[in-house]
Every structure is written in C-alpha cells, then in structure tokens.
Write a structure and sequence with these properties.
The structure holds two protein chains of two kinds. Helices cover 23% and strands 37% of the residues of chain A. Chain A is an alpha+beta fold. The chains are: A alpha+beta, B alpha+beta.
C-alpha cells in the first residue's frame, strides 16, 4: 500500500501498452496452426463458466429489472433492451447450483441461441478469452451435480476449473421455452 | 644597796664612813708600816749579831781543831762525802753523808747551836754548813732518831745532808766579799710562815770553809705587827660606829619633815590631792614644807577644775568613741555589703560581658548569614527574572505553536475535504474505466462475432480493456492513498486537537509557572529586603552590643574601683576602729587612774574613820576583827551578824553612799578580809520583799562575797588592786580595791565598782 512503491509514470505505462498491442497484433498474424474459439468468461456463484462468444451479443449493466410474478425461479425479471423486452435468466437453479444472493454489481450477458434471446444474470464478467478447442476436456462423470447436457467441457486453469456451457442446449431447456410461451401469452 | 640609795641619812653615813675608813686605813697602814720596819730593823740587828757571833764561834772551833791537830786541813776541807750505810743514821730516804770532821763537830758545836735555838724563840735553826751546803751537825730538835717514816724523818732528822737548794747553796757559798758581812735570804716556809735565812761566812786559815746559817721565824714579828694593826683597826671601828650613829640620828631627825612631804606627795600622786603637812620650822625643810602646802592647795584647786573639765571631756570623748565605734561598725557593715555587692556586680558584669560578647558574635553571625541570604536572594531574584523571561518566551512560543497547530488542523481539514473531492473524482474515473471495460468487452464480443475480420479489433478492445483495468488499479491505489490520507489527516486533526489541548495545558502550566515565578520573585524581593534590613539591623545591633560591651567594661572597671575602695574603706574603718579602741583604752586608763585615786583617797578616809573608832574606844579592836559570823535565820542567800556590823550600819552608810555621787560608781563598800560586807550601799540595802531573786539583787548587806573577784579584793594587801570583769548584764566592770589597815593590822578592803561602759548607768 505504499504509494511510493507504485510507478505512476503514465508515459511509460502507455508505452508498455503500445508495445503489448503491437506484439499481440504480430501474434495474431502468426498464429494459424491451432483452432481457437472465443469464450466469454463469467462468474456464477463460486464457479467460473465460459460462454461461447459467438452466442453472446453484448454485456450490460443491468438496467431496471421488472419482476414478473408467477415466473419460475430462474426468471428474475424483464428488461427493456433498446425497445426489446428481454428476460433476465438466472442459470444457477438450472445448473443445480446453490442459489446465491445477487452480487452487488451484477452484469447481464445477452445471449442468443435457437432464436431465443435472453440476458443471463451473472456475478461478474471476467472478459474474453481465446481457447484452443482441443484443449477442452470432457466433463468428468459425477461432476458436482451439474446437468451434463448443458455442459460441454471443462478446462483446468490456475484460477480454478473453467466449465464450458453449451448455450444451445441450455436455451433449449423446456423451462425456458415454456416460460417464453407463457410470456408470449401475456 | 637600795636601802642606801633611798635614804639621804644612809647616803651621808655611807659617804662619811667611806671617807673615814679611807683616812683610818691609810693612817693605820702607815702606823703599822712604821712599826713593822722598826721591828724588822731590830730583828735584823739581832740576827746579824747572832750570825756573826755564831760564825766567829764556829771559826774559832774549827781553827782550834786544826791548830790542836785534831784534824788536818785536808780532813777539815774534806769534800769526799761518804754516804752513811751503817749505824743509826743509815737507811734514810734522803742520803746522809760522813766526812772526816763531822764526828768531831757533833761533839763540839752542838751545844752552841742548841743554845741559840733554845734561848731565842725566834731562832728556828742555827747550823754550820760547808761551802757545798753539807750540814755536818744539826740542832738536836732536827737530829731525832730515824723512825723509818720518810716524811717524818725528812723533818725530824735533817743532819748530815747536803742542802744544795738555792737558798742553802747561796748561804753556804756566801764569802762576805760583797762588802756586807752577812747574807739575808727571805723565803716562805712550807708552813706558810716567813723565814729569814741569815748567814755569815766561816774562814779557816784564811780560806773560805763555809757559813753559819741562822733561821729566824718571822712569825713572832708578824704577830706583833698584826697585833698593832688589829688594835688600831678596833679603835678606828669604834670611832666610826659612834660617829655614824650620831650622824644618822641627827640627819634622820632633820629629814623627818622631808619624809612627811614625800608621803604626802606620794598620796597626791596616788590621787589624794587635798594633802597638807604639819611642820612648823623656819629652816630650809620647814620652808619646803610650807611651799609644798601652798603648792598642793593650788594644784588641788586647779586639778579639781581640770578633773571636772577632763571628766566632761572624757565623757564626751567616750560618747564620741562610742558613736565612732557604732558608726565604724555600721560603716564596716556597709563596706562589707558594698564589697559583696561590688563582687556580685563584678560577677554580674562579667556575665553581662560574656552575654554581650555572645550577642555580638551572634549578631555578626546573623549579619553574615543575612548578607549571604541577601546575596542568595539577589541570585534567586536574578534566577527568577531569568525564569520569568524564559517563561514569557515559552508562553509566546506556546501561543505560536498553538497558532501553528490550529493552522495545521485547518490545513488537515482542507486536505481531508480535498481528498474527499479527489475520491469523488476517482469514483468518476472508476465509473468511466468500468464503462470503458464494458465497452471493450462488448467490442471484443463484437470482434469475436466478426470472426477473422475482427481479430485486430479484438486486440484493440483487449488493449482498451487492459487500459481500463490499469486505470482501475490506479484509482484503487488512489483510493487507498486517499484513505490513508484521510486516516492520516483524521489522526493528525485528532493529534492537533490533542496538541492544541496540550498546548493549552502547557500554556496554563506556564502561566501558572509565571504566576509562581511572580510570587517567587515577590518573595525573593521581600526576602532580599528583609535580609537587607536584618543586615542593617544586625550591623546596628553589633555596633550597639559593642558599645554595650564597652559600657559594661566601664561598669566593670567602676565595680572593681568600688570593690577596691570598699576594701580601702574597710581597712580605714579597721584603722579607725583600732584607733577608737586605743582612744577608749586611753580614756579608760585615765578613768582607771582617777578611779584608783578616788578609791585610794576613800580607802584612806575610811581607814582613818575606823582607826578613830578604835582609838576613841567606841569599838574594841578584837570586836572589829571578829570572824565569828553568826548566821541570821531565814535569810537566803545567808546573811551574818558580827560584833561590829551594827556599829557599821550606824556609821558608814552616808559615808559610803557619798561615793555613789559619781554616777559611774556602782557600789562602794567596806569588806573584811573574808569578803564579808557588813554594810552595803543604801541602794542595795532595800527592805526584804520575800522575792528571792529581787532580794538577792537589792538587799546585799551582811553577805559574804567570797567569789574569786570578791575574795581577791578582800584579801588584797597591796596598794591598789584593779580587777576587770564583765557583769552578767554584759557591762564591763572595774573592781578597784584598796587595803584597809586598822592599828597597822590588815582588816580588809575598800571596794569600789565602776561601770565603765555606761557612764551614768543606773546601777
């Protein structure tokens, strides 16, 4: 916490960042061997999940969430996204995770699959990562009660196990569909 | 010799006798001398005749023997003395000798020699001796047969010895060639008588043979001379005695008036002044007596006046002496008091000196101490004023500090507010970066959606994201820093508040210190002034005590002087007292002389009165000397009657009381030789009361006063006896007694008691 120990030479920091940028550009040009996929890493409860970036539309700060009475517990409410009504889905019940309190600054990740668009309520969005497909491992049997059908794989990382979700399958869950229909009835 | 010296008659007789004795002695001696020389002359003629006759006879006898041929000349001059060793004359102690002729001489000359001795008593011996002193034939009375007793034979048998003693040898060898015909030698015999040895030479055939010696005893002659002398002396003595007696009687007769005058003068000398002599005569002595009478009258008259005057004077002198003694005594007491007082004063002064010295020392110490205190107070004052300055500095420093602290606090508050604002700004930046992050994420998602085409875009988005993340890091750090700053400012503000409080407290403390210092300063200043005052006053005190010491020393000197003068006073008073004593003694001796004279005169008068009583036959002498004291019954102390006391009671009281006119005379009484007082003075003869003590004092007649003084007075047979004693009342008494003789017999005495301490004493 010693302020003196921290370097605040912005010129230097900016120079480093410029160097990194140019290096990244060179790396992206050179890397053609491995098949990379982008994933958005989110945090739900205590578990980190990776969502395929292709299925993600945008990341939001939750605007005013209007609660919908009589909806399932996994539906937290609805939001107005630039004129479009989008449901806010909490995946934790679906994943069999312990339902946890909403994080102080939750974020919404708008996903679209199978023609269904919804905003997933997550605790935090870590960022976008590039993962080689072949490094993803299948989910080991008996993995902590998770629904095998929506989990496509896992990856052991230094920060813990990263679980890959198959959003297509997830959004094919009946609960979600029914709910959509129900909402359409409204 | 005193007897001679004291009498003119004796002196006259003595001188007369002396002169007469001298004249008579001279005349007697001349007379006797004359007589003796005549006698000796006669004797010498006789002696010469005898000697010459004897010598001639002896010469004839010897010549006859020679001529007749009985003896040869050789035999006749034989000096070959043969010591007799046989016969009746042998064995004598002194040797005897035979010669050729001695036997012949024994036969022829003994008769002649003995005739001379026998016929004249004065002739002691008449013998022939040869020229060597040899005595052939001695007189028969010296030729007694030998007895064997050496002493007897030496005197009784003297024949045929050689008498070569100087006298003998001179007689033997005298040859008559000196012109005289004989030799007289005078010598003392061992019996004491004077002897004449008269010798004449004997010649035979014209040759000196020896001498004829005749010894004359001078005893007869001396006796004759002595007889003459004695006769003369006896005659002279008779004449002397008769003459001396006659002269003595005559002179004594002539000098009788002189003795009378002498006696009278003696009496006068002893005090009996009124003396006259009964002597009528017109010779020198008579004139002397008359002159003496006139003189005594004049002297008596003058003396009376003088005595009266001197009595007065003596009385006043005595009073003066008494006063002097009293004054001297009181002065002595005063001087003693003064001396003791001055001694006390001296010791007190000594104490005072010591005390004042102590005070001076103490004052000096106090002064020194106060000086020190003053110096210390000065220093303390300086220190406190320094302290005050320091405190003031401190105060101003404090207030500056307080201001600074307050401004620091204000600055800190400002800083806190500013950092709050910074926090707001940082939050904004945080928001912005968060937004940027979100944007970058969405951009990355968009890029991912774009596939290969969005690859570069995704890099940009990533970079934006990283920028935003760095921004968040920085803002986080800023927030931390702000927090720190806020904490620091908060604690600083708290500290500054505390500091302010501390400064205030310190300020208060310093203010209190300042106040205290003010107090101290005031106290110190007071101390200083007090010390200074003490110093001043102790200096004054020192001066005062020194002055006091000087004063005390003066007082001491004065006290010493007073003591000395007291001693001198004491000495002077002592001298005064002794002078007074001497004066008193002188007065007393004068008084005593007068008393003696009066007592003597009184004694004479009473003696005369008693003698007249006896002479007139009114009192028998035996009665007067009665010692058969008859006790009077019922008297205590006992009283006695005698055969004379009643007559005394009639005759003497007035006479005796007369002496008591002199107020110093306590009593004047007659006492017999045993101390019996027949009649006392009327004062002591008051009627009996029955009270023993009163009567013992006031009725004293007819008692025996045989106490030592009384008895000594009664038995005194000398002229005057003075006894001094103290009465039981403490007064000094003189008991003067004069013996009283009646008909020449010692009867008793006249006693007069004088009280010498109290002239005018009432008893």
């Amino acid at each position: 916490m010693d302020p003196a120990g921290t370097d605040y030479d912005f010129k230097k920091i900016l120079q480093e960042m410029r160097d990194d940028y140019w290096r990244s550009l060179e790396l992206s040009d050179d890397d053609a061997g491995a098949v990379l996929r982008e994933f958005v890493v989110v945090q739900l409860g205590n578990t980190r999940f990776a969502l395929p970036a292709a299925d993600c539309r945008e990341v939001l700060r939750p605007p005013r969430i209007v609660k919908v009475p009589g909806a399932g517990e996994h539906i937290r409410g609805i939001i107005n996204l630039r004129g479009e009504i989008v449901a806010v889905t909490d995946l934790t019940p679906l994943l069999g995770l312990e339902r946890s309190e909403l994080p102080p600054q939750p974020q919404l990740v708008v996903v679209a699959a199978n023609g269904l668009t919804t905003a997933l309520l997550v605790a935090r969005v870590e960022g976008l990562i590039h993962v080689a497909i072949d490094t993803i491992e299948p989910v080991a049997a008996g993995l902590s009660g998770l629904q095998h059908d929506i989990v496509s794989g896992q990856l052991q990382q230094t920060g813990g196990t990263l679980i890959f979700l198959d959003l297509h399958r997830t959004l094919e869950r009946p609960e979600l569909i029914i709910d959509q229909k129900a909402s359409e009835r409204l | 010799m005193n007897w001679i010296k004291q009498r003119i008659s004796a002196k006259i007789i003595a001188s007369l006798v002396l002169i007469m004795v001298c004249i008579m002695a001279i005349s007697v001696s001349i007379l006797v001398q004359r007589r003796a020389s005549i006698l000796r002359e006669e004797l010498l003629v006789k002696a010469r005749t005898f000697a010459l006759t004897g010598a001639q006879t002896m010469q004839i006898a010897l010549q006859n023997a020679l001529d007749s041929g009985l003896l040869t000349k050789e035999q006749l001059f034989d000096t070959n003395y043969q010591e007799i060793t046989s016969g009746p004359l042998s064995g004598a102690a002194i040797p005897k000798y035979h010669t050729a002729y001695d036997a012949y001489l024994d036969k022829t000359i003994l008769g002649f020699e003995d005739t001379l001795v026998r016929e004249d008593a004065m002739v002691v011996f008449a013998v022939l001796v040869d020229r060597n002193g040899y005595l052939p034939t001695h007189n028969s009375k010296y030729s007694k047969p030998l007895t064997g007793d050496a002493d007897k034979d030496k005197v009784g048998n003297r024949t045929k010895r050689i008498f070569n003693d100087p006298t003998g040898l001179a007689a033997a060898q005298y040859n008559g060639k000196d012109g005289n015909t004989f030799l007289r030698q005078v010598y003392q015999r061992d019996t004491g008588e004077t002897m004449w040895d008269v010798s004449a030479p004997v010649y035979v055939d014209g040759e000196h043979w020896g001498g004829f010696r005749i010894g004359f005893s001078m005893q007869k002659t001396d006796e004759a001379i002595a007889q003459v002398r004695n006769d003369n002396i006896w005659m002279m003595t008779l004449v002397l005695v008769v003459a001396a007696g006659t002269i003595a009687m005559f002179v004594s007769y002539l000098l009788r008036p002189l003795r009378l005058i002498t006696a009278a003068a003696n009496r006068m000398a002893e005090g009996s002044l009124d003396e006259t002599i009964n002597h009528s005569g017109s010779d020198e002595v008579g004139q002397l007596a008359a002159a003496f009478n006139r003189m005594s009258q004049v002297v008596f008259a003058n003396l009376r006046e003088q005595i009266a005057k001197s009595d007065l004077m003596v009385t006043s002198i005595r009073e003066a002496i008494q006063q002097l003694s009293t004054s001297a005594n009181s002065m002595m007491a005063i001087a003693a008091q003064q001396a003791s007082g001055s001694t006390e004063q001296a010791s007190a002064v000594q104490q005072a000196t010591t005390t004042s010295e102590e005070i001076a020392v103490t004052a000096r110490q106090v002064a020194e101490n106060s000086q020190r205190v003053e110096a210390m107070a000065l220093r303390a004052g300086a220190a406190s004023s320094n302290g005050k300055e320091a405190v003031e500095d401190a105060l101003s420093g404090m207030s500056a500090l307080r201001d600074q602290v307050v401004s620091i606090a204000e600055a800190m508050l400002q800083l806190g507010e500013n950092s709050q604002k910074i926090g707001g700004i940082v939050d904004l930046i945080d928001e912005i970066s968060d937004q940027t992050n979100l944007l970058s994420l969405n951009a990355a998602i968009e890029a991912a959606g774009a596939g290969e085409a969005g690859k570069r875009f995704s890099i940009v988005a990533n970079e934006v994201k990283r920028l935003a993340e760095r921004t968040v890091d920085a803002t986080t750090q800023i927030k931390n820093l702000i927090g720190q700053i806020q904490k620091a400012t908060n604690s600083t503000i708290m500290l500054t508040e505390e500091g302010t409080k501390g400064v205030d407290a310190a300020n208060d403390l310093v203010a209190r210190v300042s106040t205290e210092l003010d107090h101290i300063s005031a106290g110190v200043s007071e101390t200083q002034s007090a010390a200074s005052e003490i110093k001043l006053s102790t200096q004054q005190q020192t001066t005062a005590s020194e002055q006091m010491a000087e004063t005390i020393a003066e007082v001491r000197d004065v006290a010493v002087q007073v003591a000395q003068s007291a001693q001198e006073t004491t000495r002077s008073i002592g001298e005064l007292t002794s002078l007074a004593e001497r004066l008193k003694g002188m007065v007393e001796s004068d008084f005593q002389a007068k008393g003696k004279a009066e007592a003597l005169a009184g004694g004479r008068m009473l003696e005369t009165a008693l003698n007249e009583l006896v002479d007139s036959g009114k009192l028998n002498l035996a009665d007067l000397f009665d010692e058969n004291y008859q006790p009077i019954p019922g008297t205590d102390p006992p009283k006695f009657h005698t055969r004379f006391d009643r007559l005394f009671d009639e005759r003497f009281p007035t006479l005796l009381d007369g002496f008591l006119k002199d107020e110093r005379v306590v009593f004047a009484v007659l006492t017999d030789r045993n101390g019996y007082i027949p009649t006392h003075n009327s004062r002591y003869n008051q009627p009996l009361t029955g009270d023993r003590d009163h009567d013992k004092m006031w009725n004293r007649s007819k008692r025996k006063f045989n106490d030592p003084v009384g008895l000594a007075a009664a038995r005194n047979n000398r002229e005057v006896l003075v006894q001094v004693y103290e009465r039981d009342t403490g007064e000094k008494m003189w008991d003067i007694s004069v013996p009283v003789h009646v008909q020449g017999k010692h009867w008793g005495a006249f006693r007069v008691g004088y009280c010498i301490d109290q002239p005018g004493g009432n008893n």
